[in-house]
Amino acid sequence: MGGFACYMDSATQTYLNLPEVRKALHIPDSVQPWVDCNIPVNSQYYHQQNHDMTPVFQSIIDSGYTLKMLVYNGDVDMACNFLGDEWFVENLAGSVYNFTLLSDRFAWNYTRGSFLPQLGGYVKSWNYSTISMDLLTVKGAGHFVPTDRPGPALQMIYNFIYTGNYNNSVPYSLNAQPLLQQYVAPPQPSFTRKQADRVWTLPGVTYELNFKQYSGYLNGVPGNYLHYWLLESQTNPQTDPLVLWLNGGPGCSSLMGLLSELGPFHPNSDGMTLFENVYSWNKAANMLFLESPRNVGFSTQNMSINPDTVYNDEKVI
């Protein structure tokens, strides 16, 4: 199904720390080298406030907003196994609330092109007031579903976004673009903020890109500079939805999700070049990858402006 080889961690770190890549992504020289997870944040500093997500889900459900929810797992995930999420959602649906069961657990199929359908996983659906919730597994996927099963993962997110049957195949081309013989950077005029953040040419991309991308810093809290990487939709960026991707950990970079799971390109084993991921989620949506909290990945903190040393759920963004 087009899974990604196991060298992804080291190759991603090598690629993102290439000087020309940092320059292309507008990363200042003063910012620390990129690593996939900030171990001190993960193991020493982070104060996890919500060990049970029930109150968080209750606040979302009780908000009155019209929302669609998708809880998905790889069925061979050894880090966050699907049974834990199944028990959580079943308790939420049957004990905390009285959700209406729309469809009991049934198999959904993944289909690529003219090939025969194959089992994609299982899904169960409910609704409650203005909320709909799907509980879905992806067969054969581990902790990084789009890494292990990129085709089924793209079909899953496409049908979730557009409220389709999960058996529906995606309407996108899955043929890789021809390789480029050489790379030519476009001229760079005087820039607006948006133009300044645009990634005009990304080193090592081995095919012609058909979407725009932007990388820079968001400064919502004085002294905190959170790095973002926005990849516009390959289909219709003006009307397609925006998906915000935040990796867990805590203290792990969302660029691992971009470059090793669901982004449009993955690093080759040399850590210098990128090949096309034909199952990229930005075929269905504009994808925003935000590295949070501060000091994770390329995100940084000016301690003279913001001396805060506390990491918790409320300060993730």
TrEMBL record:
PANTHER family: CARBOXYPEPTIDASE, SERINE PROTEASE FAMILY S10 SERINE CARBOXYPEPTIDASE. The keyword Cell inner membrane does not apply. One of its GO terms (molecular function) is serine-type carboxypeptidase activity. One of its GO terms (biological process) is proteolysis. Coiled coil: none annotated. It holds the Pfam family Peptidase_S10. Belongs to the peptidase S10 family. SUPFAM superfamilies: alpha/beta-Hydrolases. It comes from the Eukaryota. This is Serine carboxypeptidase. It comes from Oesophagostomum dentatum. The keyword Hydrolase applies. Keywords: Carboxypeptidase, Hydrolase, Protease.
